[in-house]
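Bumping my old thread because nobody answered last time. Still need a sequence for this structure:
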């Protein structure tokens, strides 16, 4: 039975073949199969270029991927030097003043410690913390003036860091608006410290603001990340002086933490306000291996206007 079916199928296939040949012979102009049309590859590529798989990030995302400023296009902090001078700051416009001379004397001792014979006995001798016993004794004013004065040196650069994350005042003192800063870097909101290191219109001065306060600021300031950052500041540029404006020493734990990173400390005390016991407490809270000095605010009296700004007590390594 199976042989009969197979023979029937073969006969049917043969009939269909002959029928197809007959139809083709009767209509020789029938459409023949065609090859695919040729394509101008170059023209098609130009007209329909595929979208890039990798898209270049906007300039604002090239450093951290989190929308931070690219250092190559970073905002410049414009300091109004005339306005600062009118408020008693060091003058960088060429005029001589009492405050210029006072801070010139102070910075000479600091620079001597940082780069002179004593430097070999101090860890991070070019890292200078500026603090006080209690608030409102003039530490931020002292820190900014030291930075301005050292920035006028021919062979030194200055990095001014606001580490008073509880009451940041560097930008306000210099007439600048708030920006992201040190805390955003330590918390990881900013990827690279360069993203919060701002150049200024003073060529040799850069600023790192404090940023936004954090409830774990003590832990972040004591972190390995902060330690490595300070070491980077101290060692990367041999001509750099780093001035860190810290919180007051008494009652604030962050300051004692920062004292372990710096090689020098400038303690600002206000004449008629600071108590001897406060001064002793300040010394006790500082690293005994540091070079420690005191600036006495509002202690110098002159014949011209009745009041100068600063007297200075020599440094000593305890």
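Sorry it took so long. Here it is:
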């Amino acid at each position: 039975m199976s042989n009969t079916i197979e023979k029937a199928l073969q006969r049917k296939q043969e009939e269909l073949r002959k029928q197809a040949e007959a139809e083709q012979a009767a209509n020789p102009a029938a459409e023949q199969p065609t090859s695919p049309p040729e394509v101008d590859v170059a023209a098609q590529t130009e007209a329909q270029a595929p979208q890039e798989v990798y898209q270049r990030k906007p300039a604002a995302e090239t450093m951290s991927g989190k929308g931070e400023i690219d250092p190559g296009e970073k905002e410049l902090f414009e300091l109004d030097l005339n306005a600062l001078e009118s408020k008693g700051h060091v003058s960088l416009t060429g005029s001589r003043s009492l405050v210029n001379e006072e801070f010139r004397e102070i910075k000479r001792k600091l620079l001597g410690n940082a780069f002179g014979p004593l430097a070999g006995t101090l860890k991070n001798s070019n890292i200078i913390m500026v603090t006080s016993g209690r608030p409102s004794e003039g530490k931020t004013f002292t820190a900014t003036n030291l930075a301005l004065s050292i920035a006028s040196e021919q062979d030194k650069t200055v990095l001014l860091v606001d580490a008073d994350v509880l009451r940041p005042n560097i930008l306000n003192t210099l007439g600048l608006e708030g920006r992201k800063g040190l805390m955003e870097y330590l918390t990881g909101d900013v990827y690279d410290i360069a993203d919060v290191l701002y150049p200024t219109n003073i060529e040799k001065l850069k600023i790192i603001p404090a940023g936004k306060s954090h409830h774990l600021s003590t832990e972040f300031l004591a972190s390995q990340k902060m330690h490595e950052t300070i070491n980077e500041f101290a060692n990367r540029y041999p001509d750099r002086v780093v001035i860190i404006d810290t919180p007051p020493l008494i009652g604030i734990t962050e300051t004692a933490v920062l004292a372990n990173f710096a090689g020098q400390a400038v303690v600002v005390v206000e004449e008629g306000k600071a108590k001897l016991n406060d001064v002793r407490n300040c010394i006790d809270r500082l690293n005994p291996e540091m070079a420690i000095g005191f600036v006495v605010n509002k202690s110098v009296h002159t014949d011209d206007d009745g009041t100068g700004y600063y007297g200075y007590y020599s440094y000593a390594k305890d």
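Confidence is low (pLDDT under 50) at residues 33-71, 300-309, 314-318. Let me know if any region looks off to you.
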